[in-house]
């Protein structure tokens, strides 16, 4: 799985071959076919593993629902940091999006991985509404997508955006400023008036 993750991240789905993967794994092609059946099934397994790891890491967050705003900030920092710490996840999602999600759509587990993240977000928003800190009627999925989009887009496009903007956006200072801006933006969108 580690070898497949590296090869798929380097070459994309189309450029990764079973031969490259088995060579990187110091194995043989038929072992991949024996355990996974096909390159596509292996790619789906790699994507599922990446989603599962993020899901597990989110589950390990110790968020205090009695402090919904502070916990929401912690969730935002986690998501933004997770994409930065796992660039292979972003690269593989880019590859899968080029294929219009056709591989991950075959996964029986894919939908499960979003349930915890949306549930965490929903509980924090609900607690915030109860404390009159968060405006009612927000959709937890939309709020989570806003957070994920800010982290994913920044990482997925850091090289082109740096060229386009004429300055590196992957320096520690630029990253800290972006994190602060995303936090401020999300909080402005959810806070009660």
Topology readout:
Elements lengths: L1 H14 L2 H7 L4 H8 L2 H21 L8 H18 L1 H12 L13 H19 L9 H17 L1 H8 L6 H19 L3
Helix pairs in contact: 1-2, 1-4, 1-6, 4-7, 5-7, 5-8, 5-10, 7-8
Quick overview:
With 193 residues, this protein is mainly alpha-helical.
- Give the number of helices: 10
Oligomer: single chain
The tally of structural domains comes to 1
State the CATH superfamily name: Tetracycline Repressor, domain 2
Instruction: Give helix and strand order, one letter per element, not per position.
Output: HHHHHHHHHH
Tell me the name of the CATH class: Mainly Alpha
CA(first)-CA(last) distance: 48 Å
Second CATH tier, the architecture: Orthogonal Bundle
Label the overall shape.
globular
**Which sheet architecture does the biggest sheet show?**
none
| CATH fold type | Tetracycline Repressor, domain 2
Looking at this protein, list some descriptive labels:
193 residues; Tetracycline Repressor, domain 2; 74% helix; mainly alpha
Protein architecture, described:
With 193 residues, the chain is mainly alpha-helical. The chain has a single domain (45-190), classed as Tetracycline Repressor, domain 2 (Orthogonal Bundle), CATH 1.10.357.10. The protein is 74% helix and 0% strand. It has 10 helices and no strands. The protein has helices at 2-15, 18-24, 29-36, 39-59, 68-85, 87-98, 112-130, 140-156, 158-165, 172-190. Helix 1 (2-15) crosses helix 4. The longest helix has 21 residues, at 39-59. It is globular and about 60 Å long. The termini are far apart.
């Amino acid at each position: 799985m580690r070898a497949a993750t590296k090869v798929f991240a380097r070459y994309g789905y189309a450029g990764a071959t079973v031969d490259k993967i088995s060579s990187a794994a110091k194995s043989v092609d038929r072992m991949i076919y024996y355990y996974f059946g096909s390159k596509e099934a292996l790619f789906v397994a790699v994507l599922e593993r990446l989603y599962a790891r993020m899901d597990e890491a989110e589950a390990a967050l110790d968020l205090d629902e009695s402090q919904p705003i502070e916990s929401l900030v912690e969730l935002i920092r986690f998501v933004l940091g997770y994409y930065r710490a796992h660039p292979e996840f972003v690269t593989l999602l880019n590859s899968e999006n080029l294929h219009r999600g056709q591989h991950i759509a075959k996964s029986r587990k894919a939908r499960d991985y979003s349930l915890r993240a949306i549930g965490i977000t929903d509980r924090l928003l609900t607690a915030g509404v109860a404390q009159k800190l968060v405006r009612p009627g927000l959709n937890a999925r939309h709020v989570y997508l806003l957070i994920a989009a800010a982290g994913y887009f920044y990482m997925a496009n850091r090289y082109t955006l740096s060229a386009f903007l004429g300055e590196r956006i992957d320096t520690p200072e630029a990253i800290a400023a972006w994190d602060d801006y995303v936090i401020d933006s999300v909080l402005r969108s959810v806070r009660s008036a």
